[in-house]
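Standup notes
- HV: blocked on the assembly model, inputs below
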Amino acid sequence: MARQYEFRPAKAAQRRMIVDACRRLTAISALDQYQYVGFGGLEFIDFVEFHRGLGIPLMTSIERDTNIQHRLEFNKPYNSIRVLMGEARDQLPQVDWTKLSITWLDYTDVLTKDILRDLDYVVRSSVPGSIVLVTVNGAATYPLSNRLDNLRDKLGDLIGDDLNASDMNGWGPAQVERSVLQATAHSVGRDAHGLPFRQLFNFHYADDAKMLTWGGIVTSANLDRTIDACRFDDLHFVRTGDDAFEINVPVLTEREITYLETELVGSTSGALPKIKGVEPKDIKAFAQVYRWRVGTR
Amino acid sequence: MSPSKRAEVGHHEYMVTSTPDTTIDAGAEKRFFIEMLTKDIELLPAIVDLVDNSVDGARGLHPDGNLSGQWVKIEFGDESFTISDNSGGISVDIARHYAFRFGRSKDFTGVKRSVGQFGVGMKRAIFKIGQAFAVQSAFRGTPGTNDGSRFDLSVDVEEWAQQDEWTFQFGSVEESVALGPDEVAGTVISVTKLHPSVQDDLGDPAIIQALRTELRVRHQESIQSGLQLHLNSEQPLTASRPSLQASDVVRPLVKEFQVAGAGGGTVEVKLYAGTVAPPKRDKDADPEDDGQAENFQDPGDAGWYLFCNDRLLLVADRTPLTGWGNPAAAYHPQYRAFRGFVYLSADDAGLLPWNTTKTAVDRDSPVFRAVQSEMKTALVAVQAVINRAKQVRSRLEEDEQKPEILVALDEAQDQPITSLSASTQMVAPAAPPPKPKAPPTPKIQRIQYAVDPKRFDEVATALGATSGSEVGRLTFDYFYDQEIG
């Protein structure tokens, strides 16, 4: 049976991109000194990726559905994973925040003030050099005309006055959510660590619903230069501002994939390879994600 | 006397000129000055300022911190307010050059770890309370020498406001004297011609209660070190000793850290956050039962207490300033067991995050923001323990044995915070997960139909059934098995 994440190719590629970026944290500390904190669900896919990619042994998964506790204990891929049952808000304080951490608050809901409070707590508690990520739904409620009201409902005065309904098309709500997340982390970073939180990630992807993954690194005056030395900017998917990196994994056959990879790597002209009948935009999208896509080759 | 005198208020400084070509009415100037000085201070902080001065003096006499034998007495009635102490007195020299100056000159060294930083407290407090005052002081000086002094002065503020001079006159002055061995070296400040609103306030039991609470908490360390602080009573106040629940399995959050002050120097911070034991009297009641009015308890003492050099700036704070509402949950009666105590201390009082009146937190201070951030995460952590216990309690069934987390939080006694050891988190037993929910009862569809009794009997006989419902069920099952199942 195919593993479930293969049905979510964009999410899977995103996970690997983030792990790839985290490898650059070696400038700050040995990677196995980091801990991973996430919402593992039954599959713990991100836990496996972070362990394989970074060698992190110490991991904590928070799960609110207390009915699946026994299955979680059975399904967890490593004995070192500590499963905390309950709402993130009540469980996060049990994490040992004196350690460097990579924390991924991977929600499926639209951004709310409760989520912002969790973010506030995590950024405040994390030691500088820690990574914090939040995934939320891109707020795509229908009809379109309700989207702005819906966002204002959830976030109140955090939503700027200058927005109007036409800003709510497509990825508009996700853009608003990103700015609210970053604004919160910015202020909390200043309060708690003396410098604003540095955004690194602003992913848009849509395996089904439109989703936003935003994140970055907690910095401090002592660490800021070291973070520069991590050279996150060298990664083409790193985004420090409001323009997003959209992950789009085109549907291609194995044969097409093999051909495209062969041609892409080592191309001297810089021109993208072509396949008759395959849209150039799909080939371009493929070129952006092939190294991180999950597949047989 | 120089033709111009200076008055300093906070960081500002202005000149009052009395050269012959000006026509400023100095009386009006002084009244305006007094009004400005007193308009932003309330009575309680004014009294507390006077007590702080006395306590500072007592502490200055005993660098070892042992204050036994020291006393401060506050007495008041309809006509007068008096505070007296044996805190060493004010020397004539200090009185002449510093104590009654408006604003403290830079070369005054002050008392280490004191609150008296801006030099306006005493005069402002006096002006706030009444229209006339008298100060008497005896200063011992170095024992065995004759550098002691005594003075008294009395001022009618209304008359003083009429004068051009910004000076007070000593009634009597004695310098280079030796105080007798039994003579009290100390100060008595009496204020008379009380403002009518002050008379009202001092006659209000609620205000006296607030003052008592404030003094007990604010000066608890000094009281515990032996200071006798009397508030209109022969009996000195007892210290209100901050305590938190602690046991083998419950440990409050206890952190000590330093924050760098602006321009060098550090502020030492001690932060304690946790819960207090549930009140004994409702031990049998459900302590989490918050929804019902008859169980309503005053939030009372719940919240944050913040001290700067042992001066209390925040009392039972439950506002967003200390994290309530963001990032922690807003106050709700379920959190009434929460207590947080934060102590900031610095040798240089100017590093501490308070306003010029030392009555409130300077919320824009970087030092405060750093401390505030720690308070916020501590509050979230303690709330999380309270929430977990509440969830466990809410699903506890009758006759079920109390889970460890509830036993721990119901039974752990309050311990003075000075006895607690460091813990970066609040520690409490884990909450047992809820039992998996029973599978939902299957939905059912009822059918009812009427048939000919004869045919019913035939079918019943064929099925071997004895009741209508049995016939109905068996015929339905028969059809289902044959045609669908």
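- HV (later): unblocked. Chain B has twelve helices and 16 strands. The two ends of chain B are 115 Å apart (CA to CA).
- Next: hand off to the docking folks.
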